[in-house]
Amino acid sequence: MSLLAIDDLRVSYGEIEALRGVSLSVEAGEVVTILGANGAGKTTLMRAVSGLLGKRGGQIAFDGQDITRAGADRIVRLGVTQAPEGRRVFGTLSVLENLRLGGFTRPGAEVRASIEQAYEMFPRLRERSAQLAGTLSGGEQQMLAIARALVGRPKLLLLDEPSLGLAPIIVQAIFRSLRQIADSGVTILLVEQNARSALKLADRGYVLEVGRIVLDGRADTLLASPEVQAAYLGKGHAPG
Amino acid sequence: MGTFVQQVFNGLTVGGIYALIALGYTMVYGVMRLINFAHGDLCILGAFIGLTLLSGAAGSGHPGVALLLLAFVLAIAVVAAAGVLLEFVAYRPLRRADRLAAVVSALGASVLIENGIMIVWGPNVHVFPSGLLPETVWHVAGAAITFVQVLIILASVVLMAALYVFVHHTKFGTAIRAAAIDQDTARLMGINVNRVIVTVFVVGPALGAIGGLFVGVYYREAYFTMGWVYGLYAFIAAILGGIGNIPGAMLGGVLLGLFNAFAAGYISSSWQDAITFALLIGILLVRPTGLLGERVAEKV
Ligand SMILES: Nc1ncnc2c1ncn2[C@@H]1O[C@H](COP(=O)(O)OP(=O)(O)OP(=O)(O)O)[C@@H](O)[C@H]1O
Ligand SMILES: [Mg+2]
What we know:
Structural class of chain A: alpha/beta
Oligomer: heterodimer
Number of domains of chain B: 1
CATH topology of the largest domain in chain A: Rossmann fold
Largest interface: A-B, 29 and 21 residues
Strand order of the largest sheet of chain A: 6-7-8-3-9-10
Strand content of chain A: 25-35%
Bound molecules: adenosine-5'-triphosphate, magnesium ion
């Protein structure tokens, strides 16, 4: 049984159909990436899984439980946390307060231990623990967003474009951290436009185009596929 | 010197009351970006509930302080319940609707509560019973400071300190601040935002009921349109301090109270309101977001 199983998911914003029957699965221990151009529906998918958006149709099951209509707080309690697109740190709260909020559903002693682990992974956050999150650099805010999601002790970590707007060297550092997180046994569903790095990290991938999955497969297969190379890796032109 | 000390105490008393009421406006705005125009009326509902209990029991031989305490408990309970009901009936169905719809609903709720008070208690001015509290007066540096003033000032300080500790140093308080910054991201933390909103509609009206009852006990009167009068002042206090900001509402309330008192004491009580509004406009010209208004980072 898959850890996350999405079946024929449909989500609309009024008249606009953003997801038109998306099906995918994530197995425990996997890293799965979703590639897609701007407006493909990637963020919509992530927000729907986290319970922030209502569904027009289809089903989402996590860990064997139907979460299609579950509230966002229940989904977090079941073990799904998210570092959302654009980082969304609580700017006027301190770094430490942000991290504690990540553990809102967890017992206090465990949260303290998780924050300690987060500081070991991102030592810069420890140095800045009393600083307001809004005053961090973009890269530091992304680290905080990831660390905050980890403090929730997820079984499944959702990451929506963690490399967005960051310098290449910071992007590399972020992907190294993601490797470390995956190796520690956390299952990851990663949305990225940085297709190369994402496919190198991932076990499998899906390609989303205007609300539909058009391609899926093992990450190395996708990395080598002409369609993906043409559309997402910027390698010349697709034949034909 | 006598006038100065006198006005400081008068100002702190009224300022404490404004601050208690202002907190309800600012907390609701902070979390929902909505001005709860019915808040002032809720507060005055607290004054009327206290009035009924105190008038009924006056002369019964029970000690005034115990009665007053009971009046507060009852007023807080009823007004907090009314606050939750208000949110459920007037605001919750409009969460996803146009901002203007919620404003109209708030105004409607205000009129409804105000008229409800008029139907139950009548349109005339009620006088609070006397002799409930010690009539002690302290003479300090030429000023006369009453027991009621000291009670109101101390109670306001204690309540505001308690609220500050709750909001800034507890887990749920931090969740409230998070929901005020970004509701969706707060949900991603596992925070039940509905529970945050209900809490805000319990705490704000509860503090407001205390403020409303203080108005009654201090001025010894209650009338059904009083919610607009004090609601407006408290609302101004909230704007002055920076709407949405809790310490701001406290500061705004106290400053407005002091300013009111000094304007009345040194210039003229008939110019008091004009001077107060001039000050408000002046401060907002210099600091459009209020004294402690949201820093830009909070708007993400
Ligand atoms: N709140 C909204 N209201 C209306 N339409 C929306 C809303 N959010 C997204 N959409 C639309 O839904 C579609 C999918 O948007 P979504 O944000 O999921 O794309 P995305 O793949 O995450 O894009 P990007 O790579 O730019 O982040 C787009 O056409 C977008 O315009
Ligand atoms: Mg997106």
